[in-house]
Structure formats: structure tokens, C-alpha cells
Amino acid sequence: MNTETDDKTLKTDSPAWPMVGGVLAAIGASLCCAGPFVLLMLGISGSWISTLAAFDPLRPYFIALVVGLFLWAGWKVYRPLDLCSADGVCSVPDNRRRSKVVFWLTSLIAAILVSSPYWLVWLMA
């Protein structure tokens, strides 16, 4: 194997990709409700903001994607050490601890975004 290309390849056992995907899907799930609120709070207005409500029918699919990606990331973060390769990301204790912290922080962000239609109503009342 060529060591030059091995250094440039992405680690497949890293939980980063499902976590990033989960947060992006959570942003998609909150576009219908939190998107207009955030834009208005930033002073951005216009009639086009109402078009973000078109994402509302897609919300359950985004939520399912968020849950699926975070379940996958959680499995990657908390899997047993014997399933990790010797040179893998999950075999180093500092990387495992950092991955757990990042996993729970991104899970919290995703939960806030996904639940935004419910708590934004109370915030705006």
C-alpha cells in the first residue's frame, strides 16, 4: 500500500461524519420554524421568509435522519475497544473521551434545533 495515500484518506471509524450529518439534518428540521425566527432576530426580513414554511412537510424525514445519524455516531463513540482497529481513532483514550464530549454537545444542539417549534412558541408569547 502507498503510505502517501493512506495518510490522506479519511478515517472510516471516526464518529465525526455522522455527528456533522446529524447537526445538518437538525438544521433542516428546524428551518420551518427556527429559521424565520433567527432571521427576524438578526433584522433580516422580507416576504420570502414565509417560503421557509415549505420545509414543514419534510420535518419528520429530517428528524428520522437526525435520530439515525446520532444512533450511528453513538455506536461509533461507545463501541467496545475490541471492535476498534489498533491504529483507529477509537483506540486512543484521549480521542474516545473527546469524541464522547463532542457527541453529547452535538446531540444537545441537535435536540434544541429539532425541538425548536415547541419552545419557540413559548419564547415568542
Automatic annotation (TrEMBL):
The keyword Transmembrane helix applies. Its main location: membrane. Keywords: Cell inner membrane, Cell membrane, Membrane, Mercuric resistance, Mercury, Metal-binding, Transmembrane, Transmembrane helix, Transport. The keyword Membrane applies. InterPro entries: Transprt_MerT. It is a multi-pass membrane protein. It comes from the Bacteria. It is found in: Cell inner membrane. Pfam families: MerT. Belongs to the MerT family. This is Mercuric transport protein MerT. It comes from Shewanella psychropiezotolerans.
